[in-house]
Structures are given as structure tokens and as C-alpha cells.
Input
Amino acid sequence: MDDQMYDDAYRGWRASLTTLLADPALLARWQERRFQFAHRVGVLLTEAHGGSPAVTGPALYGVFSAGAGLCYVGQTQEAERRLRDLPVGESHHLANTVPPELWERVVVIRWPLLLPEVPVRERSLVEEMGSTVCGLALEHALQVATAPPLNSRRRRTSGDWQPRNLTQSRSRGAIYAQSVPGLTQLTLAAWSALSQVVIPEHSAVIDTGTGRAVSPAALHRPPSD
Output
């Protein structure tokens, strides 16, 4: 896309929003529609589905959009709260940049459920590290493996962006990422599977027990007769 096409698309986006926010009643309607959609996505990400329990506690998550693919990878110790807020955007920047109406897929990995498959020595190390540090380590490993664009830059106070070299990070996650190779391998395998699995047309969720893939895009489909 050349600069002119990009600028035209940007102006079209602003014109559409100007129409949708043309008066107080339309503003309220816009607010309601956006929150209703975000709430539906949050429910799909967290509540029990079929025979699978609700998503709670530590988890990794990532958001995919059409065209750009994987946009962002994060981790949380409170999936029941963070994943509900993720599409709303009240305490997370992602929805401000990539609106949830454009999300194609969200992948969630409940990594503690993979621990029984890890060697005993590594499980003991995870226990010593603690859930928070281990979550950060897995988040770092996943970000390095997938290079999501919204994790690959940081904002600067000057108003522009600075590239992040994730492989040279000295964060807690980066320091401990090499300590859990077995868990990292299992996590990446589960991530790859859920990133590629086909979500049936009649559903918006696939849950494997250790993770789930949610298709916000499916919510745009008209209801079947």
C-alpha cells in the first residue's frame, strides 16, 4: 500500500467514525455496541465452554488480526480478569491500537496444566521460580519465537517509537527463559496447534483443556436460520 492509499484509508476511517458519532444519541449507541462486542469476546475467552472449565489463573495469550497476523503476545496471573479486560481496553493498550472488531483469533495457553508433562527436576525449578517469574519467562520465549510487532517496539517520551531487541533483553523473563526448556517446548507446541487449528463455522471457540482459540471474527457472521 503506497502513502496515498494509506492516507485515503485513514481519512475514510475518520469519516466513518464522524458519521457514527454525529450526535449524542449515536455516541451512546456506539458506546453500547462496542462494549457489547468486547463483552462477548471476554466471555468467550474466560467462561466455561462445553466440557472445559473457565479460564483462570496464569495464562499466556496472543491476538491475531486479518492481514497483520499475530499482533501481540502477553501473559497474566489472573486470566479471569485480564482476558475480560483485553478487548475492552480500559487497562490494556492493545484494543486502542487494534480494535477487537478486527481480531481474527485470540489464543490462550493455560501453561500450568502442561507441568505434569515436564521432567520432575524442571517442575521443582518452576516451583522455586514462582508462577509470576515463570509466566514472564514463557512470555519472553514466545515473543522471541514469534516476534509480534506490538511487542517489538516501545513508546518513547519524545512521541516516537524505539525498536526492542527481544533477544538482548535483560528482563526477568529473559533471564529465566532458558531455565525451563521442557515447559517452553510444550508451550510453543500448544501455541502452534491453537494458532493453526480450524475453528468450525458453527462455533467461535475451540478448547483443548490446556488452551483455547477464540474467533471474535465469528461474531460478525449473521445468525444461521
About this structure: The first strand starts at residue 59 and ends at 65. Helices lie at 3-20, 24-46, 79-85, 94-97, 120-129, 131-146, 172-176, 181-196. The chain has a mean pLDDT of 94. The radius of gyration is 19 Å.
